[in-house]
Structure of GDP-mannose 4,6-dehydratase:
Amino acid sequence: MKKALITGITGQDGSYLSEFLLKKGYEVHGIKRRSSSLNTERIDHLYQDPHEPNRHLILHYGDLIDSMSLTSLIQKIQPDEIYNLGAMSHVKVSFEIPEYTANVNGMGALRILEAIKLLGLHKKTKFCQASTSELYGKVQEVPQNEDTCFYPRSPYGVAKLFAYWTTVNYREAYNIFAANGIMFNHESPHRGETFVTRKITKAASKMAMGDSEILYLGNLEAKRDWGHAKDYMRALWLIIQQKKPDDYVIATGITTTVREFVIKTFDLLGVELEFSGTGIDEMGVVKNVTNPKYKFTKGQIVIKIDPEYFRPAEVDELLGDAGKARKHLKWQPEYSLDAIIKEMLESDLKTTMPPNIH
């Protein structure tokens, strides 16, 4: 039975990767930070009591900023595969806590790779770094592939760039199987509610139930290449199954604006939107309602712009070319963006609806 160690197991990606690996017959070990409040809801359906014999999912306390805890866990577990998914994952917030972001997102990868080296596990343990399209930032070409120059535009992106090149360096210097999965934006019902996609589907669901709140957004023209987290976790697994380590772009090859994401979301609720005004005065208003099940009214203001949600340095367009992954990994996404939005919206509606409406 293979052993996998996952940092960030309680996050969106960690939950789907855990589920995937357990179905593959792995013994899955996850690192979670100590907190006074539980944050395991995404993996509660996978949880196994410590008293159960032959457990296949085992959680450990640890932290990416604590090299001693990482090294001791890796020595104890002796994992065949390590997936470094843990990160301070919110790009906008990284401008507010840049030092912490660098410590977790950048130095975290270094600490794991150094542990593999020091413990002499370079022939046993494979390492996969969850890298990001934010490396491209102020894009130098469209679409972006493995050879595109990096130009990160946030502390998050800069820290992830350090982790990317650290992964390459340890691969070349110490012959460690260390690979990067350069993942473009990936979403799901497990996405955190402060991320723009989940923020949109959650707010739209509340409005559908009669909540009078307004959805405040930033740059509606930002273009992103959105895929499903399940597809992208399958790609990371394929990367680590290769005979030789390498770096791969994981993307759908389709770009969509935030505005289009909003329109698609409300359209699934039977709401046609129209936008008026310009700049920070722009608003999204209900133009027509075709589904009487939901509590929207014509003329209802549902979208406004808040300058607080603009980044100090904006990333305007991300579009990935996953040709290398398609060729060498035989990977391609199974979910369309429409299917992703539908799944997220249905999940949020279930948690928003009163019990008697289910």
About this structure: The longest helix spans residues 98-118.
